[in-house]
Amino acid sequence: MSKTSLQQYLSEHPFFRGLRPKDLAWLAELAEPLALEVGDYLYREGDQSKDFYLVQEGLVRLEIHTPGRGALVIQTLGPGEVLGWSVMLPETRKTFDAHIFQAARLLAFDAAAVRQRSEEDHHFGYELCKRFSRVIGGRLQATRLRLLDLYGQPH
Amino acid sequence: MVNPISSIPRPDPMLPRPFRVARAIRETADVVTLELEAQEGPPLAFLPGQFTMLYVFGVGEVPISISGDPHKPERLVHTIRRVGPVTEALCQLRKGDVVGVRGPFGSAWPMEQARGGDLVVVAGGIGLPPLRPAIYHLLRHRRDYGRVYLLYGARTPADLLFPQELQRWQYTLSHAPGASPVRVTVDRAEGAWNGSVGLVTELIPYLHLDPAHTTALMVGPEVMMRFTLAELRKRGVPEENLYLSMERNMKCAVGFCGHCQLGPHFVCKDGPVFAFPQVRDWIVRKEV
Amino acid sequence: MSKGQFVLERSGLEQLLQALKAEGYQTLGPTMREGAIVYDELQRLEDLPIGYTDHQEGGTYRLRRRSDEALFGYNVGPHSWKRFLHPPLLRLFRSHRENGKLEFESEDEPIPKYAFFGVRACELAAIQIQDRVFLGGPYQDPHYQARREQVFIVAINCTQAGNTCFCTSVNSGPKAQTGFDLALTEVLEGDRHYFVGEVGSEAGARLLDRVAHRPAEGSEWSQAEALVAQAARQMGRQLDTEGLKEMLYQNLEHPRWEEVAARCLSCGNCTQVCPTCFCTSVEDHTDLAGQMAERTRRWDSCFTADFSYLHGGSVRVSTRARYRQWLTHKLATWQDQFGSLGCVGCGRCITWCPVGIDLTEEVAAMRSAPSEQPWSVPPAGGAHV
Question: Which residues of chain B are within 8 Å of residue C278 when distances are taken between CB atoms?
Answer without folding.
Answer: 256, 258
